[in-house]
Design goal:
The chain is an alpha/beta fold and about 180 residues long. It is built from six helices and eight strands, in the order αββααβαβββαβαβ. The strands form two sheets. The chain has a six-stranded mixed sheet with strand order 5-4-3-6-7-8, sandwiched between helices. Helix 6 (about 155-165) links the parallel strand 7 and strand 8. The longest helix has 14 residues, at about 40-55. The protein is globular, with a radius of gyration of 16 Å.
């Protein structure tokens, strides 16, 4: 069963760092949330996976995926948790660059064109990496029905998804850690 309090505690203890950081978006920040410190931990990944399945309970979708490498453990965890609940679900990975050999595709996995998909990310700032994944899977022929994140930094991601008519949900926001979001 998903335990939101436990997930917040894990982020506090394992993923939240203070200092001077430059984020993937290029923005400067006095704190950093290293989502992989939670998603690459057994209890953390279990809580994330169960939480995401609960968050997606009312969404009709065929597959879940996102940008490799940040989304990789999340996808594996969600697929495992779905199987434990008796649900058949596909996953996929979106490459930053095509392999250059084999199928030479950006989208890897059993997902097929026409599938309804959810894009997942660990920490969302402006949504840039999720939007790249969205573009790649749309180009592949899938329909993006939702973007989900574990934590929203509340720094423009939701607004950027809204501009593209992409519904967006998260398990947590920075406010859950007692942090007021920086101005966008």
């Amino acid at each position: 069963m998903y335990d939101r309090t436990q997930l917040i505690d894990l982020f506090h203890r394992r993923a939240l760092k203070f200092g001077d950081f430059t984020l993937a978006s290029g923005q400067k920040s006095s704190y950093y949330l290293d989502g992989k410190q939670v998603t690459l931990h057994s209890v953390g990944l279990r809580q994330v996976s169960l939480g995401l399945l609960e968050l997606l309970g009312d969404v009709e979708f065929d597959a879940i995926g996102g940008m490799s490498i940040g989304a990789d453990p999340i996808i594996g965890g969600v697929l495992t948790a779905a199987a434990e609940q008796g649900r058949s679900l596909d996953g996929f990975l979106v490459r930053k660059e095509a392999k250059g050999h084999g199928t030479n595709r950006f989208v890897e996995g059993p997902v097929q064109p026409g599938a309804r998909v959810v894009i997942v990310d660990d920490v969302v700032t402006t949504g840039g990496s999720s939007l790249l994944a969205v573009d790649r899977v749309i180009e592949y022929g899938c329909k993006v029905v939702l973007v989900v994140g574990i934590v929203d930094r509340l720094q423009g991601g939701a607004e950027n998804f809204a501009k593209r008519d992409l519904p967006f949900r998260t398990l947590l926001t920075v406010k859950d850690f007692g942090i007021e979001p920086a101005s966008v």
